Amino acid sequence: MVDLFLRFERQLTRLAMAVAVVMLVVSVSFSFYQVLTRFVFNAPSTWSEVAARTAMIWCVFMAAAATFRGGYMMAVEAIYKVVPGRLLPVLEIAIVLCCLLVLAVLIHFGILMTQRVSNQTMSGMNVSMAYAYAAIPVGAGFAMVAVLARLLAQLSGREALGPDLGDASPEVEMHDPRQTIPESNDAPRRGGTRP
Question: For residues 16 and 105, what is the distance between their CA atoms, to the nearest angstrom?
């Protein structure tokens, strides 16, 4: 059952990420078109700025699912270091409950806002503003599934507990570069001039 849910979530998150990438491309393209019409042709487009903004909103909310699933949201690593290992599952459950609460609020109020603006149109376009606001509940719904999948994968032992530190670079010792390069008498000194 867990495997089936994780497989479903993987496909759902891939779909969300694909939509986010497409929306990013659309947003960048419309922004470029806006700059081109405004500064090159001196005839600014009336619709491209609104369309680019709407695409960027969809990009952000759809990419949230992949961000939650990968554990790339901001993590307070100090808490993981203080909490004993046996309490890590409890900490993960508490974090997931907080995330689910926020996402549920986004879904609830996102639906209300989408319904409230459904009779309004975007400036410069004859399209309902509901299409822009719909990104909030849709993206939060995708993210909610991703959050649950991450918790299930962690509790079933398929993934490690705690934040994903795979992309973090190890700490390197900082050293003074002047110590590795011997100074000769002929080299100019800092702040001074050559004799």
Answer: 20
The pTM for the full model equals: 0.76
Which amino acid type is present at position 48? S
Residue closest to 88 by CA, chosen among 162, 165, 153, 147: 162
**Distance from C-alpha of 162 to C-alpha of 128, rounded to nearest angstrom:** 42
Using CB atoms within 10 Å of the CB of residue 3, give its burial: 0 to 12 exposed, 13 to 18 middle, 19+ buried: exposed
Phi-psi region of 39 (alpha: psi -120 to 50; beta: other; left: phi over 0): alpha
Nearest to 16 by CA among 95, 72, 74, 69: 69
- Three-state secondary-structure class, residue 193: coil
pLDDT in tens, 63-75: 999 998 887 776 6
